[in-house]
Amino acid sequence: MADKKQKSNNSKQNIVMAAIVLAILAFVAIQCFSVLNVSLKTQTAYVATVYDTVNTQALIIRDEKQAASGDGVAVATVSNGEKVAAGGSIAMLFSSSENAQQYSNYLELERERQYYIDMVNVAVGSVMDVERLESGIVSDVNGFIRSAARGDAQGAQNYSYSLNDGFTKRSLLIGDQIDFSTVLQELNDKIEAINISACKPTGYITAEKSGYYSKYTDGCEDAFDYSLVKELDMDTFNSYLAKANSAEGTVLGSGKIIRSYVWYLCCIVDAEDVIGLKNGNNLDVYVKSANKTFSCKLVSGANVSLGDTQTLLVLSCNEMNSEISSMRVEDIEIRLKAYTGIKMSSSAVHDLDGETGVYALVSNIAKWRKADILYTGEDYVILSYNDPDVKNGIKLYDEIIIRGKDVKDGKVFA
């Protein structure tokens, strides 16, 4: 009985050992197969641009002045980003916020009523080019799609309003009957219910100088000397930056007037980062919060004194919009030098008889393509292409081999 039990245990152990051995052999076989059978992988040759960059924090200095506050509650009469003339009205003053709200409601109702009156005029026979109207509708559709794709909610909303107008006018022009009398009567009733004489403005705020209106203020409008920005030193810059970082922005009140489209980005960088640069050079600056690149001119900071480890750069830009008007302290990327070529995985690059290049798959045949490495990234390179001086250089849309076994010039891959 004991012998039978011993034989049974030995049999079980043999089975377990055999299973382990088979598992090991299977693993080894799989590894050998993966090594000996490397699947061919290619990457299409597309053009890309990368940059030598410097990342830093910039202070934005503009020629701006906060508008006068006046006595009472101020409500802007011009749109954010609108040009204003010297002496022109930029805000209305009210004795209370309630009166300001009532009057704003009145103006909005009046705009809405005028909109429907205009629609009635279309309905009674105003002449309009239907083809041009339909072209505008298509343009608005495209604009809506682009705005939605980049996450611009306000832009998408504006296009949707324009589309609604376009579709309504088109319906009227092709003969559809739309009755606006009910909605016009409702608007008239709401307007008549407002006591205009009791809530009308008590005064107005005007612009001292012509310029660009912004409703956004942060209290730093008069804190920085715009006229001396080109001679800014590091101590003054650091005091400016500290003041800007402690400021609290607001969209309340009468806003500000920006009196020049030329504004400045001021930032500190390492001295070694400006080697090769000259004052007057044009540089692209990417502002991260705006997700936008601005074309700037290097005004000062390229001439570094011997022994200095840092330098203060001042860059100018002459573009202005509502987003720029609210910038103050921004994380930026200064793009010092651009490299344009074929962006390719580093694994594609080989050395053949002292030449650097890649293999392109042409009709299932590996073809050697000579190329210079213009830039080396973490796991990619930028390669030269379409060079007239290189007989067998990389061509746009070549299928470049980035993985394969025993790849060589002339090898056929089934």
How would you describe the overall organization of this protein?
- With 414 residues, the chain is α+β, with helices and mostly antiparallel strands.
- The protein is built from 7 helices and 20 strands.
- It has helices spanning 2-36, 97-123, 130-149, 153-173, 181-192, 196-199, 234-246; strands at 41-44, 47-61, 64-66, 73-76, 83-84, 89-94, 203-206, 211-214, 256-258, 263-270, 282-287, 292-300, 310-317, 329-345, 350-352, 355-362, 365-370, 373-376, 380-383, 399-403.
- The strands form 5 sheets. It has a 6-stranded antiparallel beta barrel.
Q: How much of the residues is beta strand, in percent?
A: 25-35%
Helix fraction?
A: 25-40%
- The ordered string of helix (H) and strand (E) elements is HEEEEEEHHHHHEEHEEEEEEEEEEEE
Mean pLDDT rating: 84
Computed Rg: 35 Å
The chain-level structural class is alpha+beta
As residue ranges, the low-confidence spans are 32-37
Question: What separation lies between the terminal Cα atoms?
Answer: 64 Å
The spatial strand order of the largest sheet comes to: 2-10-13-12-11-14
The major beta sheet can be summarized as:
6 strands, antiparallel, barrel
Basic shape: extended
Based on the model shown, name its key terms.
20 strands; 414 residues; alpha+beta; four-stranded antiparallel beta sheet; 7 helices; six-stranded antiparallel barrel
Q: What is this structure's SSE topology?
A:
Blueprint (H helix, E strand, L loop, with lengths): L1 H35 L4 E4 L2 E15 L2 E3 L6 E4 L6 E2 L4 E6 L2 H27 L6 H20 L3 H21 L7 H12 L3 H4 L3 E4 L4 E4 L19 H13 L9 E3 L4 E8 L11 E6 L4 E9 L9 E8 L11 E17 L4 E3 L2 E8 L2 E6 L2 E4 L3 E4 L15 E5 L11
Helix pairs in contact: 2-5, 3-4
